[in-house]
Amino acid sequence: MSTVSPQGLTVGQAATRLGVTVRALHYWDATGIASPSLRTSRGYRVYTATDLAWVQRVIVYRELEVPLEAIKALLDGENSDSVTELRRQQEQVSTQITHLQDVLRGLDRMIKARENGLLLTVEQQAEIFGPEWQSDWLGRAREQWGDTQQWAEYAEQAANRTPDDWVKIVQTNTKLDAALVTAKRAGVIPGSEAANRLAEQHRKAFNSYFHITYNMHVMLGRIYEGNPEYADHFNRREPGFAAWLREIIEANAQANGVNLEAVTWL
Asked: Which of 98, 115, 138 marks a domain boundary?
């Protein structure tokens, strides 16, 4: 830093010399953290070399993100108090670092969930979802639905799930599937109270993946019956199961005000 003239530096000159804004210097002056100590014959305040050294110390602490009120205490206080204050700031920064590391890990999981659909190894997927599970299903689903709100919602939930969480979801869905098959075999009629109750349980079960409306549920039921791969999966459990599941879903949706002739993915 070159020498400061005996007359000192104006606010603008000091700001340029120190690499800060004039606004910052004015603010530090107004709050009493760093004020110029001289005035020109015209009444303008100017910074001496001592003033600039003081402001430089303020800048050092600001670069460490120490709050202004704490900087004033540090610069005005005794050495022992300053060390105590610095240790307090150190603890706060350490806490922030821990929090940011948690955030970083969360973002990493979210990215992986968006890209892969699950944060499970292939072995874990096979163990949790059973022998019929195909590891390429998620890749195919992402290709088809990756730009939708539902995929984003699914990924957000998946990012926070452990293998044990998935086991519980599979157990719940397996129990529901068994109840549906039993009802089909028992001749439960679509539109009946028992059928509507099961259809509603099936719709709500989807909340473990993404929020699903009655309209969306109807479209899903139609996909179950109309897509040969899905239909074969359901009908292996019970002949005619895919069509029956679609029928009870539609009846329940109609009972809840859905016009089955004007269904949309909403």
From this structure: 98
